[in-house]
Amino acid sequence: MMQEKTYILLLLCLPFSLGLSNQTLNNSINTLPGCPNKCGNLAVPYPFGIGINAGCSIDPWFDINCNTSFNPPKAFLSKTDREVIDISGTKIRLKNYIASRCYNNIGGMTRENIVEVDLGTSPFSFSNQNKFTVVGCDYFWLMEGKTYISKGLKRFIISQGTFLNHTKVFSYNPCGYSFLGEQDRYKFRVADLFNPTFAQRILKTVPLVIDWVIGNQTCVEVQKSSDFACQENSICVDSDTGLEGYRCNCSNGYEGNPYLRPGCQDINECENNPCHEKGICTNTPGGYNCSCRRGYIGDGRTCIAQHSNKLVVYTGLGTSIGLLLLLVVTYWLYKVVKKSNKHKRRQKNFKRNGGLLLQQQISTNEGLVDKTRLFTAKELLKATDQFNESRILGRGGQGTVYKGMLSDGRTIAVKKSKVVSVNQLEQFINEVVILSQINHRNVVKLLGCCLETEVPLLVYEFIPNGTLFDQIHDLNAEFPITWSMRLRIAAEIAGALAYLHYESSVPIYHRDIKSSNILLDENYKSKVSDFGISRSIAIDQTHLTTLVKGTFGYLDPEYFQSSQFTEKSDVYSFGVVLVELLSGQKAISSSVTEDERSLATRFLVSMERNCLHNILDPRILEQDNDGDIIGVANLAYGCLNLNGKKRPTMKEVAMELENIRLSKTPASAQRVSRVINTEVGSSLSMSDINSTWTISDHNSSLSPDTNPLLHDTV
C-alpha cells in the first residue's frame, strides 16, 4: 500500500498526542457449547473462541491461544501472537508496542527499538480510540502509515532520530519513547523523562485498541448468504471504519450475544419498575406497558386516584374558562381602545385639515349640501381596498390616484396627496367648495373629499378611457383617434377652459394644461382633470406672482421668466396641446438636438419657414381635412405667441374652434391641400397666418381682465 510519512518534531520536554474519539459497546459474554469461556482472568465471548482451529470461534482470525505456562494463563491472538488484555463489544485491547532510543553521556546510542505493526488482510484495524504519544527531548519521530490516525488504519511504523545525540539533555533525559495507545490511559510525569522503568509501565497500563468486524461484505450483501452471522432479535450494522465487514447488535429491548443461537433475549424492563408507584408494569417482547391499578386513572407513568379526579377536572375546567374569559375581555378592551384611538385620530385630522370650516361653509350655503360630500376614511379605505397597489391609476409629483368603488356601485378616482401645507388648509377648503360647484360636461367632477386622514383626499368621478396623451402617442392603438375626433376634443377642451375662465362662480386658471391631464370617457368625450389646491386673489389684481409650477414643454415662457401667471398662460399651454393633436408628437422629444427638443419651438419654426407639412401627423394627412388643419394651425400659432397680450383669450379660442368644426368650405380645403403638399419653400405663406384676434362677441360680463382663481396643480 502507498505510505505517507509524518515528521513530528519535539521541541519541548512534554508529551505530544494526537487525540481520537471514544466509542465503547458492551455485550453479554458467552460462548459456543463445549467451549471454554475464560483464559485466566480474561472472559472470551463468541465470535472469539479459545483454542487454535478448535471450532470455538467464528473464524480462525478470532482464535485465542490460551498459554497456560503463565500463572494465571495469558490469552494471545493466535494470528498476531500478541497478548490480549481485554475483549469488549466491538474492540479488543492488546499489549502495546513501544519505540525507543537511548544514549550515553557522550552521545553514543545504547539502545534502539523501531516498531512496525501490519494487520494485513485480517478483520482487525487500529481504533480511533488510540492516540500517538511522544515522550522525550532532542528527538524527532517518524510515523509511517497515514498523516493522521483514524478508523481503518491497518499498518504503522514508528522510528526516531536526534539532533544533538542527546548530549544536551542526557542528565535528565537519556531515552526517548513513542507509542500508539489507548487515549486517557497515560498521564505524563516529569519523572518519565529519566525513569528507566517507563517502558515497562506503558506496556502494562496503556493497551493498543483494535476494532474488529465480521467478514468482508456489507449487510445487504451478506444477508443473502448462509454465512450471515446475526441471529434472532438482532440487527446488522455496516462497519464504520471505512473497511468492508459488518457487526451484529441486539435490537432495542433485547440483550445477549447476537452471534449465538437462539439470538438476543428479551429484557424484562419491569425489573427496574419504570412505571408509576401506583401502576402495573407488563413486560412485552422488546418493550413493556404501564397501566394504573384499580382506583387510579392515567397512563401508568402518571396515576391519579379516582376520587380526586373530579376536583382536578373541575379545577382545570374552571381555570381554562377563566383564562378564556380573560382573553376575550382583554381582546375586547384592546379593540375598544384601538377604535377609540382611531376615532380620536380621525377627529384630530378632521379638525386639522379644516373640516369644521368646510362644515360651516356647507351649512351656510344650501347649494353646497348636495354638491360637496364629506367622505369618511372608512368609506374610502373600503372603496380602494386599503389603497391597494393594484388600484393605482397613476402617480404624479404631488400624489397618487387610486381607482375605487363606492358601496352604491359608483366608480371613483381618489387622489391622495403627498403633503398639504398647514398654512394652505383654509385655501384648500375654499378650493373644494369652489370646485364642487363646477358643473361642466368637459370638466372632471369633484364629488367630495375626506379630511379624516393625515393628508386630505379628493374624490373625483372615474373616467375610463385614459388620457389624451396615450391616445395621441400610442401608434399601435386599436382605435386611433381620427382628425374629426381630435378637432372635437380640442373644441371641448377650449370650451371647458373658457368656462373656467369666464363662467364659473369664481374664475379659475388651470395652470397645468397638457395632454396627460385631459381624460377621455367611454364615448371619447374629453374631461379636463387634475384640479388640486387653488388660491384666490384680490379682485383688483390682474395676476399673481408665485413659484413657477407646471410641466416643461407646456409652460408659458413669459410666466417662466416673470413668475406672473395670467389667463394667457393657460392659452399657451393649450396651444401646445393643439400642436400635439396636429403633429402626433410629444411636447418634449429626446430624439432630437437640444435646440429642437421643444415641440412648440419646432412648430413655430415650421410655420415661419412655410413648411408646415414637415411637422404634421401623417395619420391626419391621409384624411380629407386640409382646410380644418390649416385653420387649427393658424390658431395654435396665435396661442403660442411669445407675447402673452397678443394671444387670443380662451373664449376666442373656443369660438374659433367651433367655427372650424362647423365650416363647409370645399374650395378652401382644396386650396389648402395644394399648399400643404407643395415642396419646401413654396408652402404656407405667412400672409395666411392671422395673429390679430377679434371676435364680435366682446360684450360678455366677464372680460379677460377678470381676476381668476389661480390653480396650483398637484
From TrEMBL:
Keyword Cell cycle among UniProt keywords: no
Catalytic activity: L-seryl-[protein] + ATP = O-phospho-L-seryl-[protein] + ADP + H(+); L-threonyl-[protein] + ATP = O-phospho-L-threonyl-[protein] + ADP + H(+)
Molecular function GO labels: ATP binding; protein serine/threonine kinase activity
UniProt membrane topology term: Single-pass type I membrane protein
InterPro entries on file: EGF, EGF-like_Ca-bd_dom, EGF-type_Asp/Asn_hydroxyl_site, EGF_Ca-bd_CS, Kinase-like_dom_sf, NOTCH1_EGF-like, Prot_kinase_dom, Ser/Thr_kinase_AS
Major subcellular site: membrane
Record-linked Gene3D superfamilies: Laminin, Phosphorylase Kinase, domain 1, Transferase(Phosphotransferase) domain 1
Keywords: ATP-binding, Disulfide bond, EGF-like domain, Glycoprotein, Kinase, Membrane, Nucleotide-binding, Phosphoprotein, Receptor, Repeat, Serine/threonine-protein kinase, Signal, Transferase, Transmembrane, Transmembrane helix
Domain EGF-like residues, every copy: 221-265, 266-304
Annotated ranges, domain Protein kinase: 387-662
Subcellular location: Membrane
Transmembrane intervals: 311-334
Signal peptide start-end: 1-19
Highest taxon, organism lineage: Eukaryota
GO cellular component: membrane
Task of the protein: Serine/threonine-protein kinase that may function as a signaling receptor of extracellular matrix component. Binding to pectin may have significance in the control of cell expansion, morphogenesis and development.
UniProt protein name: Wall-associated receptor kinase 2
Organism the protein comes from: Abeliophyllum distichum
